[in-house]
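Inverse folding, one chain.
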């Protein structure tokens, strides 16, 4: 539930990016009532093996459908008296939570916000407060599109003017 509350608060975590018929990239924030939250539960013996298996999945993300974040609950294999026992709702000290987040919607500065909001959602066990005045990714995207990039373009062209691209 905490993971779902974070996704509901941050529209970027339910954003689809795709090309229209003209080849223009479209960004669409999906309706929170119609999103599917991806939480996969795995049992493992080797953290490296299961992590590599997850990270190398071809279907890990589907940005065009807004599938940009996943939560993976990794339960250490639990064997007691030759009987396996497993409870998906309980985590032990040997279990892990792995989040996979597409780089198109998340960067290093997003980590602290994500962890803070996930912790808060867990503590209050309910929806996170919405700040309608806070900037969203779409606001930055619009601002960047309206910004005159002539000086930046000129700078980089001058820096790369004599660069040997073939080398």
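Residues assigned per position:
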């Amino acid at each position: 539930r905490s993971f779902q509350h974070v996704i509901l608060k941050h529209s970027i975590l339910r954003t689809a990016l795709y090309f229209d018929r003209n080849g223009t990239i479209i960004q669409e924030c999906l309706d929170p009532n119609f999103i599917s939250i991806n939480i996969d539960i795995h049992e493992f013996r080797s953290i490296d093996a299961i992590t590599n298996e997850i990270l190398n999945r071809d279907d890990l993300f589907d940005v065009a459908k807004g599938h940009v974040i996943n939560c993976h609950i990794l339960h250490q294999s639990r064997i007691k008296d030759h009987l396996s026992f497993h409870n998906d709702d309980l985590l032990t000290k040997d279990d892990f939570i792995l989040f996979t987040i597409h780089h198109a919607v998340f960067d290093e500065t997003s980590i602290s916000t994500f962890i803070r909001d996930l912790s808060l959602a867990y503590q209050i066990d309910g929806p996170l407060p919405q700040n309608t005045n806070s900037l969203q990714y779409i606001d930055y995207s619009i601002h960047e599109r309206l910004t005159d990039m002539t000086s930046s373009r000129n700078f980089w062209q001058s820096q790369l003017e004599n660069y040997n691209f073939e080398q």
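The two ends are 52 Å apart (CA to CA). Residues 80-84 have pLDDT under 50 and may be disordered.
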